[in-house]
Amino acid sequence: MVCSISCIVVNRLSENRIVLRASSGVSPIARRTWLGSTRPEEQAAPVETATLPVPRPRPIQQPPKSAAAAQSNPLTPAVAYNSEQAVRQPPMTHQHEQYSQQQPIPRPREQANQQMPKFLLGPTMVSPDEQLIQPTRIAAAGPTTIAARAAVSNGDLDADLRLPRKQIQLVAPPYVHAHEQATREGPKIIEVRLVVEEKDMVIDDAGTKIKAMTFNGTIPAPAIIVHEGDYVETTLVNPSTNSMQHNIDFHSATGGLGGGDLTLISPGEQTVLRWKATRPGAYVYHCIPGGSMIPWHIMAGMSGLIMVLPRDGLKDREGRPLHYDRIYDIGEQAFYVPRGKDGKFKTYASHADAFSDTMELMHGLVPTHVVYNGRVGALTGKNALPAKVGENVLIVHTSTDRDTRVHIVGGHGDYLWEMGKFNNRPTVDAESWFVRAGSASVVLYTFLEPGVYVYINHNMIEGVELGASAHFKVQGPWNNDLMAQVRAPEPIRAAGKALGEQYGFSITGRNP
In sequence order, which residues have a C-beta less than 8 Å from that of residue 491 and are 6 or more positions away? Predict the structure, then answer.
C-alpha cells in the first residue's frame, strides 16, 4: 500500500546514493537506493543537498532536416594503411570542477505535477500521473516555469579544447549518416541533436499501438558514428509538449551514469552534454530516468546505437584493413502490450493510463512482440535491405534489455565482433552469434549469391511468431560452384521408376 505524501524531494547523500525523502508531517517512506534498500529502521533525516552538476549549455542553431540516405550507392571507404599511425591528440589541461549549490524547496502535493523530483530511483516508485509535468487536467493553469540551474564551472571548455567542430545530420534507422571509416585528421567535437518525442506508434500489421517514447521519433533511435578521441557534444531536447522527464545514458561514455546524471530534463528544457570517445566499439545509448521509469522508457523505444570507430579503421585478425560498402543499424525491441478481457490488445489515452497495466505485464517477462526496428515487418518484404553480390555489408545489432541470438539463413559472419569492441580481434566464419542485453554486436559479411537472405532471431518462436526477422535482398549473378540444383523436384514414383530402369530394381517391389 503506497503511503500518501505531500511532497517528495530527491537528495544525493555524501556516499553518492540516491534516496527518496518524505517531508515532515506525513508518514515517511523507506529510503531506498537504485540497487537495493537501506535498513528499514533508518529514518529520512534532513541533509544538505546539492543540485547535480550539468554542463553549461551553448546555443546551437538547429539545421534543416535532411532526408535519410537510401544508401543505394556504397559509401566510399577511407582506409588507413598499417604504416599510418593514429593522429595523436593535443595535450589538454582542465581547471578543477566547481559545483554551485542551492537548497531544494519543498513543494506541496498540489504542485507535484508541475515540479517533480529530478531523480526517482529505487523499488518504491512514484506513479506516473504524479510525475507528469503538464497533464491535460491542469493545462489551464498555464505553462510551467522551470528554475534555472547552475552549470559546471570548468573554465572555457571551447578554449581548452581548441578543436574543430562537425555537426552530424542524423538519419532514421536502419540507415546511418555519412561518415568516414578511417581518418587521418585529428579529433573533432562532434555535435548531435536528439529530441525526445512521446507519441503513439503502430507496431504490427493489425494496427496494434503502443505509447512510445523515442529519440528523434524513431525506434531504434538514430545511430551516431564517431572516431576514437572525438568529443561527442549532445544537445538533448525535451519539448514542452511531452509529459515526463528524460535523460540519456551513453554506454560508451565514462562517469555520471553515462551522462544520465547530467542530462535529466523536464518538459520545456534542453541540456548539452560533452563526453570523450575513448573506447572503440559499438554501444547502446538509452534513457535512464530512474526506478521503474528505466525499464518502461527503454521498452517504449528510447534506445539507440553509438559506434566509436578506430581512427585507422577496422582491422582483421592480422591487422589488415577492412572496409564496408554498406552499413545497417538493426535494433531488436521487445514490446509488452496488455490485452483486454476480449483478448484484443488495449489502447490508452495517455502514457500515465498505460503505465500500470504495462508494468504488470512486463513483470512476467513474456513480451507480446519481439521486433526489429520498431514493428513487425519493418525490414522484410518491400522493406528488405538492399545489397549486391560481392559487397561488404556491416550489420550492427543492438538489444538493450534482452539477450538474443542472430543468424543469417544462407549466410555467415565473415568477421564478427560479438561483444562489439574493436580492440578485440574479430572471430571468423560465424554461424550464429549472441547479442547480450545492453550491448551491440558487429558483423561484416560479403554476400556471394543473389536472393533473399533471412536475418533472424534464431529463437524461432520470437523470430517467426513474434516478428524478430529481416530480409536482405541481394542482386547479382548466381554462382553454380557454391550451390546448384542437380535435379528439379519431381514425384517420388517417377524418380523410383527411372532409377529402376537404370539399375534393375523398383521401390514398389515389382520388376521394372
Answer: none
Q: Which residue has the higher pLDDT, 228 or 105?
A: 228
Is 417 or 5 the better-scoring residue by pLDDT? 417
Q: pTM of the predicted model, to two decimals?
A: 0.70
The pLDDT value recorded for residue 28 is: 33
Tell me: the pLDDT tens digits for 241-258? 999 999 999 999 999 999
Specify the long-range contacts of residues 478-482, CB closer than 8 Å, at least 24 apart: 478/449, 478/450, 479/448, 479/449, 482/448, 482/449
Which pLDDT tens digit goes with each residue over 2-39? 443 333 333 333 333 333 333 333 333 333 334 333 33
Closest among 335, 334, 338 to 357, alpha carbons compared: 338
29: CB partners within 8 A, 6+ apart: 3, 5, 20, 22, 44, 124
Q: DSSP of 163-190, one letter per residue? A: --EEE-----TTS-----SS-SS---EE
469-475/451-457 β-pairing: antiparallel
What would the DSSP string read from start to end of 351-385? Answer: HHHHHHHHHHHHTTT--SEEEETTSTTTTSGGGPE
What confidence tens digit (pLDDT) does each residue in 65-90 have?
Answer: 444 444 433 343 433 333 333 334 44
The cell for 343 is 483478448
- The amino acid present at 467, given as its one-letter code, is G
- 170-to-62, 151, 271, 329 alpha-carbon distances in Å: 12, 27, 18, 13
Q: How far apart are the C-alpha atoms of 337 and 345, rounded to whole Å?
A: 6
Residue 161: how many CB atoms within 10 A of its CB?
20
The C-alpha cell that represents 29 in the structure block: 517512506
Residues 389, 401: Cα–Cα separation, whole Å: 34
Residues 152, 263 contacting (CB under 8 angstroms): no
Cα angle: 110, vertex 111, 114; to 5 degrees:
135
φ and ψ at residue 348, rounded to 5 degrees: -135, 150
The pLDDT tens digits of the residues spanning 282-307 come to: 999 999 999 999 999 999 999 999 99
